[in-house]
From TrEMBL:
SUPFAM superfamilies: S-adenosyl-L-methionine-dependent methyltransferases. One of its GO terms (biological process) is methylation. Keywords: Methyltransferase, Transferase. It comes from Streptomyces monticola. Residues 60-157 form the Methyltransferase domain. Its EC number is 2.1.-.-. InterPro entries: Methyltransf_25, Methyltransf_Superfamily, SAM-dependent_MTases_sf. This is Class I SAM-dependent methyltransferase. One of its GO terms (molecular function) is methyltransferase activity.
Length: 244
């Protein structure tokens, strides 16, 4: 799962026994060499789908990590893009990567340290995206999270993110994710501070309801690059909430 440049088992153990913020501060220098970094195929598919929905003025990457998602915003936004994360270590890595690309054409890039549950923006963006971060929020936190993104968007603005279909019941991946979540729940029962990271708490039905209650009109777009399941449903969708 990890390259030779990724974290060691000892480093991962220390990170897992830390808070979410501290864990990601420690992981940040090697994060892009782990499977936790959103694969390029998801970023590219999202960017292609958003291009078909139009071009945007300003964009926000919620829980931006080391900044991989900014490549999507830079392709569809014309004015300014902003990455927000609560990990200082992640933002430092993102700034460094952006500095290496400083000569590239595109919108202005800025970075803000903040908790996604208390965003310091109001009516500021035309598009918000997020990649791979929702497992760090418990289901009961989603209304606050989605409400903050809603307030950060201008009227008619979009909140978009890819969401994969759950693996088939009985598949190795299903049992792997189930086991991971079980281990994390036990860890959080016996160890403080908690490290919130679950893979099976972000089901489409609940997410769609929370988005609608936050004030979004929700549309689903199949990402055909990932194919379809035997029943014909897409293996991955782009969830798009439009601020009413």
């Amino acid at each position: 799962m990890f390259t030779s440049q990724g974290p060691t088992l000892r480093e991962l153990t220390v990170q897992a026994l830390s808070s979410v913020e501290r864990g990601y501060d420690l992981l940040a220098p090697k994060f892009d060499h782990t499977p936790f970094r959103t694969p390029d195929r998801y970023l590219d598919a999202t960017g292609a789908a958003l291009t078909r929905l139009g071009h945007f003025g300003s964009g926000l990457d919620v829980c931006c990590g080391t900044g991989a998602g900014l490549r999507v915003l830079r392709t569809v936004c014309q004015q300014q893009v902003t990455g927000v994360d609560f990990s200082a270590g992640m933002l430092e890595e993102a700034r460094g990567a952006a500095g290496e690309q400083a000569g590239a054409a595109g919108p202005e890039v800025r970075w803000v340290r903040a908790d996604a549950r208390a965003l310091p923006f109001r009516d500021a963006f035309d598009l918000a995206v997020s990649f791979g971060a929702f497992g760090h929020f418990l289901p009961e936190e989603r209304p606050v999270l989605f409400g903050e993104v809603h307030r950060a968007l201008r009227s008619g603005g979009l909140f978009a993110f890819p969401l994969g279909a759950p693996p088939p019941l009985g598949s190795p991946l299903h049992w792997s994710l189930l086991g991971f979540d079980a281990v994390m729940r036990v860890r959080n029962l016996v160890w403080r501070p908690p490290f919130v990271m679950y893979y099976r708490t972000f089901a489409l039905s609940g997410v769609r309801g929370d988005l609608e209650r936050a004030g979004f009109a929700v549309e689903l777009y199949p990402l055909e690059e990932f194919g379809r399941r035997p029943d014909g449903s897409p293996k991955c969708r782009l969830v798009v909430g439009r601020k009413r």
